[in-house]
Write a structure and sequence with these properties.
alpha/beta
Length: about 260
């Protein structure tokens, strides 16, 4: 179900066209609420919506009532709907009644974190030459270290483990802890007597140059995770600190 026109990757799309695009992906758009409705696309998440006799407000109120009754309805914003069209997962937005208003709650790490973490999707993403050489992506060592990181982070039931936003920096694993959104890059460059230190420096610079979104709520922290056998020199720590990047082994990862 759509509440109106929706911004799809910077282009305003009217409801009729949104319905058409969704149908091509196997969805069944609905114009009125029934038990068939499982997703509401809210195209204008701009803050408070007055509880007046308006279609938008009625739909949001119906979503809240349905959730209270035990039937969950997923709500996505413009970015979330765009992600779904491109086959990426989209996080559900929380709604809250405040007096006679329906408030769309702010999302920590918005534009940085995407939907739920999916290991299979991570394995099938494209890998650039630089990512293969400097980050070690696609290698057994990289997969092994990533598994250790997932085990450490995902083992905390209180953490919200997430994938990167489709149009944001492509880290390996993201999560929310308290008011901070973390994005971790696992780095396992090819081992060599003279090249590993340079590759590590390149990796830190790559993460440091990644987009620095300014979230509407909470803060963003980029993290570089290394193997236990890596000699983490003071120079590399200083470079990471200067770029606003945390660097360390899996045991050092904040959660």
């Amino acid at each position: 179900m759509f509440t109106g026109k929706t911004l799809v990757d910077g282009e305003w799309v009217v409801r009729k066209e949104c319905s058409s695009r969704s149908q091509t992906l196997g969805a069944f758009p609905q114009d009125s609420f029934s038990r068939k409705v499982t997703l509401v696309v809210h195209g204008e998440l701009t803050g408070n919506v007055k509880d007046a006799d308006r279609e938008l407000s009625r739909k949001l109120l119906t979503v809240i009532e349905s959730r209270r009754a035990g039937r969950h309805i997923h709500v996505v914003d413009n970015a979330g709907y765009s992600d779904l069209l491109f086959g990426a997962p989209a996080p559900c937005r929380n709604l809250k009644m405040q007096g006679d208003h329906v408030t769309v709650m702010p999302e920590i790490g918005e534009g940085f974190l995407g939907g739920p973490f999916d290991r299979l999707r991570l394995r099938t993403r494209g890998i650039s030459r630089f990512e293969a050489d400097a980050l070690g992506r696609g290698t057994p060592r990289h997969e092994k270290l990533l598994s250790r990181l997932i085990e450490r982070v995902a083992g905390r039931a209180t953490l919200d483990v997430r994938a990167p936003a489709r149009r944001g920096p492509q880290f390996d694993l993201g999560w929310i802890s308290r008011q901070t959104a973390y994005g971790a890059w696992v780095v396992t460059p090819p081992q060599s007597a003279d090249g590993e230190a340079n590759r590590l420096a390149e990796a830190v610079e790559h993460v440091g140059r990644s987009a620095r979104p300014v979230p509407r709520h909470g803060r963003v922290q980029r993290v570089v995770v290394l193997e236990d056998s890596v000699d983490l020199s003071s120079g590399l720590r200083e470079k990471a600190q200067a770029l606003g990047v945390l660097i360390g082994k899996t045991k050092d990862v904040p959660r």
